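Two entries, shown back to back:
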Amino acid sequence: MNFYELITKRQSGRQYDTRLVEPEKIRQCIEAARLAPSACNAQPWKFIVVDEPELKNPLASAGKEYTLMDIGIAATHFSLQATDLGLGTCIIGWLDEKKVQKLLQIPNKKRIPLLLTVGYSTNEIRKKQRKELNIIYGANKY
């Protein structure tokens, strides 16, 4: 499957059958997330895999809507598609919002959570330096 086919199939699932997901598949997903870029390579994440039913149900009802998360997901899709097309990108979250608003004539009431640069990169692909899996992963608790 190519990247475009992948993103057209990916969707938010809210109903699941009773089969348990294999631990190796969860590890593969965490490994993919572990390789994600982060500002100053801070890697500020910790993944807690919850498979205990008495924890899953209360957690499911605690979910909220986050517009900024949606924007981040869209920027990630853009960046991954660009990479597939041979382009480089950089998601920039540290910016002078007032200056950007003025330059792009964006109304003051609108927020600018990020900038995304794109072009033909001249950077060499470098080996990713990431925290070990056991540092960013927990089972049913932090």
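entry 2 starts here
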Amino acid sequence: MERSAAGVATRRPAESDTHDDAPETVDWEGVPVDCAKCPHAAKRDRQPCEIGHACVQDRYARRVDRFFRWNPESAEGWLDHPYFEVRAIAARHASIFRLTTLMSDPDETVRASVALRLPQRLLLKLAKDPHREVRIRVAQRVSPHLLVGLCNDEDYGVRAWVARRLPPKWLSRMARDPDTQVRLEVARRLEPALLGQLASDESLLVRRTVAERAGVALLACLAKDEAWEVRWEVAHRVGGALAEQLAEDVEEEVRTAALVRLAALRRSDPPEGSRP
């Protein structure tokens, strides 16, 4: 630790800590930061700060974050600060026993920060939060078996996270989701035996994903798909009879893929008379 020319206690930044480009050192109300009036002034000997670099009063979030990384033990004293960035960043370091008071914070950034650290028994209480970012944090962290209640969330981003983490045995309930991205996540994880639910999906991307994972029976169905991109995926995976069928496809890309597949099948299973 060292002292600046102004007598402010500072800690020499690590090599990875570079000073910010933003020149202003103003607080959240746009008033120039005054170290003499700062509530932290009496603690500078024990808890270092540096104006324009690591400052809890600065409106620049990176400087606030750096202050709390230097002084994580001070976080609980700032949980009721009027600036939402201070509350949100302090919540990353405060004791989890103090976070319950911020679950109903008026700012969604603070509530989202809280959702990243709440224990499981409290996390679901934020599942009905009015802001999507908070509910997304819940969907990212809550135990998979508790995600069913979020399957019908109004926001596709929340549902997409549910589809990524929901136990496979419950994924079928999301196969008819109105959003393509959600159904795509389902197609990537649904058990192959259940992929037929998505074989006629309106989205080409979903059907291609199904073709990448489908079993033999479903591949035969997808070989007739109207989109050549789906048939191209099928051509890479089918057995001999279906590969021969696709070798006569109207699209050159599909024919080429089928011919390559046939050649590979013949190499792996030579005629009876040619076997040693």
